[in-house]
Amino acid sequence: MKVNGTHYRSLWWDDDKKALQIIDQRWLPHEFRIQQVDTLQDFADAIVEMRVRGAPLIGATAAYGMALAAKIDPSDQHLDETWEFLDKTRPTAINLRWALTRCRTRLKSLPEAERAKAALKLAHEMSDEDVEICRNIGLNGLEIIRKIAATKKPGEPVRILTHCNAGWIATVDWGTATSPMYHAHDAGIPIHVWVDETRPRNQGALTSWELGSHGIPHTYITDNAGGHLMQHGQVDLVIVGTDRTTRRGDVCNKIGTYLKALAAQANNVPFYVALPSPTIDWAVDDGVAEIPIEERDGREVTHIQGRNEDGKIVQVQVTPDGTPGGNMAFDVTPNHLVTGLITERGVCEASREGLAGLFPDLAEVAKSA
């Protein structure tokens, strides 16, 4: 995707500096800042502090973290220590552990002298894979939007509601939930996107920044407006992302997603989840009972960041002194509320059979593990 006319990925390797560059997302949408990640502590801080965020992007970042670890000390012990160190940074998004495990397994199969070079090559490959996965999610989701568009009057937009930011800055490029939107817009299909603010970190502002940069019509709305819009027939479909999806199709996503799914079901609005295969946790069945839900600092709830009239980025307190903030970062939407899962291999129902039908190779490996 482009920022001010220049193409960027959300992270990239600088060959001259021999270091990873990231977009520091804490300052978006008001400031576009690039940060170099030099140490393993930098990698951990980038993930914990949400300088990088979104399950696919966290996984790609972790892969480069393992590459740095292999360069510093390619021993099995150090790879294990780095795996443990980075795995603790965020507990909910499964892509983090998937990427760390994939890297460690691959590197341990090689002589130590070959590991550093192979680790960096693997990190590059995993980033490129993520781009292609998201591109194909977009193409598959495009067909859903195209079918709805065919029922519209000429020039009438397909109205899509999304929650949180499952955009290109939450992946390496394209995004998951936004990828079908980009493809539809580029194909000349009129769309309008309702963008939930997504408290407490207001990640909907990131989605608005992305869509605006691409010229896609959109409106930023409060988190509680979605049900009202659905009641009044102003939402044609919902598309959200996911940080972890169970083998039966339960979906863990940003807090508030579950409520959108309930409203969608009550108003007969299709509810789709854009799902890259590395986000499937084949070891988990019941998402509500088994997925750990990250609880973040309450200050994210009691304070809000924005730009004041002087153009400065500031934080202000919105609660009375002494009021604690509860900050459950994710919730789980049971599979029976999900119309379909949009993956890089196609669209399937949210069920064991649906996922196994599209990914028999992954399901079989998980069964034998």
Automatic annotation (TrEMBL):
The UniProt entry, under Gene3D superfamilies, shows: translation initiation factor eif-2b, domain 1, Translation initiation factor eif-2b, domain 2
Q: Quote the Pfam families the UniProt record gives.
A: IF-2B
Catalytic residues, chain numbering = 243
Task: Specify the superkingdom.
Answer: Bacteria
Positions with a binding annotation for substrate: 53-55, 90, 203, 253-254
Keywords, comma-separated and alphabetical: Amino-acid biosynthesis, Isomerase, Methionine biosynthesis
Q: What class of enzyme is it?
A: isomerase
Pathway, per record: Amino-acid biosynthesis; L-methionine biosynthesis via salvage pathway; L-methionine from S-methyl-5-thio-alpha-D-ribose 1-phosphate: step 1/6
Query: Listed GO molecular functions?
Result: S-methyl-5-thioribose-1-phosphate isomerase activity
Question: Might you give the EC number(s) for this enzyme?
Answer: 5.3.1.23
Site described as Transition state stabilizer, located at: 164
User: What processes in GO biological process is this protein linked to?
Assistant: L-methionine salvage from methylthioadenosine
Reaction it catalyzes: 5-deoxy-alpha-D-ribose 1-phosphate = 5-deoxy-D-ribulose 1-phosphate; 5-(methylsulfanyl)-alpha-D-ribose 1-phosphate = 5-(methylsulfanyl)-D-ribulose 1-phosphate
Q: Write down the InterPro entries for this protein, in alphabetical order.
A: IF-2B-related, IF-M1Pi, IF_2B-like_C, Initiation_fac_2B_a/b/d, M1Pi_N, NagB/RpiA_transferase-like
Cross-referenced HAMAP family: Salvage_MtnA (MF_01678)
Family indicated by similarity: Belongs to the EIF-2B alpha/beta/delta subunits family. MtnA subfamily.
Q: What does this protein do?
A: Catalyzes the interconversion of methylthioribose-1-phosphate (MTR-1-P) into methylthioribulose-1-phosphate (MTRu-1-P). Also catalyzes the interconversion of 5-deoxyribose 1-phosphate and 5-deoxyribulose 1-phosphate. Part of a bifunctional DHAP-shunt salvage pathway for SAM by-products.
Report the protein name in the record.
Answer: Methylthioribose-1-phosphate isomerase
